[in-house]
Design a protein that fits this description.
Four Helix Bundle (Hemerythrin (Met), subunit A); 5 helices; 0% strand; elongated
């Protein structure tokens, strides 16, 4: 039993580190987003605008990729370790809510990697911002349901 608890604590710490790094990436994403939305008139001839947009797209795609291919997988794995069928169901429902924003982000990235036309960028950024807000809410709930909810189980004294 104690060995299982130690294994779970090691897993917990690993997942916590992954989540912490991911939330730091979210912070960076929001900073890049704010850098862009502060620009009121986008000019494709202004290299700074293009550089900010390119950097935002890179961070945006990285954030979404880490979410899908690292964080969500670890959260689901943790739910399975704790046999948390209710948490796994809620997590699956949350993934369904997150998926449309993933498609929007990838479309946004593809569009602005392929064009210098920034006429609709302000409108597109607004839509991405709204999608990210909803995504962050679902991600936070997923962390709560599939990760934070198990903290109490780890802190219980182990039965021998």
């Amino acid at each position: 039993m104690l060995k299982n608890l130690d294994t779970l604590k090691q897993h917990w710490g690993g997942v916590s580190d992954i989540v912490d790094r991911w939330l730091d990436e979210r912070r960076e994403l929001l900073v890049k987003y704010c850098d862009l939305v502060e620009i009121h008139t986008f000019d494709s001839a202004n290299s700074t605008h293009g550089e900010k947009l390119q950097r935002f797209c890179e961070v945006l795609v990285d954030y979404v990729s880490v979410g899908h291919f690292e964080v969500y997988e670890e959260l689901v794995r943790e739910g399975k370790i704790f046999s948390d069928s209710q948490g796994l169901k809620v997590g699956a429902d949350l993934m369904d809510k997150i998926q449309p924003s993933t498609e929007m982000v990838l479309d946004f990235n593809d569009k602005y990697l392929a064009t210098d036309d920034l006429d609709s960028l302000a409108e597109d950024l607004s839509a991405v911002g709204e999608a990210l807000e909803l995504r962050f809410e679902s991600e936070d709930k997923m962390i709560e349901v599939l990760h934070s909810a198990h903290l109490a189980q780890l802190q219980q004294p182990a039965s021998v």
